[in-house]
Amino acid sequence: MRMPMFLIAALSVLPVNATAADTIAPSPQAAETKLPGDGIVGRWKPAEDNVVVAITRSQTGYAGSIVESPEKPSLAGQQMFRGLVFDAARSEWTGEVYAVKKGEFVPAVIRLSSDGFVLTAGKGFFSKKIGWTRA
Fold first, then answer.
1. Which secondary-structure segment (H or E) carries 31?
2. Nearest 10 degrees: CA dihedral of 89, 122, 47, 73?
3. Is there a contact between 94 and 85 (Cβ–Cβ < 8 Å)?
4. Which residues make beta-bridge pairs with 113?
5. Does residue 11 surpass a pLDDT of 50?
6. Which of the pair, 2 or 21, is modelled with greater confidence?
7. Is the Cβ–Cβ distance between 54 and 43 less than 8 Å?
8. Most buried in the list 8, 14, 77, 100, measured by CB within 10 Å?
9. Helix (H), strand (E) at residue 21
10. What is the set of domains in the chain, with CATH numbers?
């Protein structure tokens, strides 16, 4: 039985001693590669509160948690941002931010500014803009 040409071509690009793990697992360098959305990664302070939030990249996007809260130590570890996804065409991240006063997550849009980023929390008439700077 003859093997179809497309299978021969596909198999010819794999090294002779390749395993399934070699063809699926990313290299260590790939994990360290900067992505266009990584501009949001780091430690940030909102203009209105005395807290520091660390934003990190995950497999599905970006998330952030409170790492310092001198006035309310019980907030340390509280997730503040979740599901942030970068939209390169719009130069913004969309996801959710935790509204402490409401006790729930609300829609969020983040856009970098010259001195940090501007967070728009909520939707429409009930939205609020908050400036953030690097901590």
1. helix 28-31
2. -120
3. yes
4. 116
5. no
6. 2
7. yes
8. 100
9. helix 20-24
10. 35-134 (2.40.128.520)
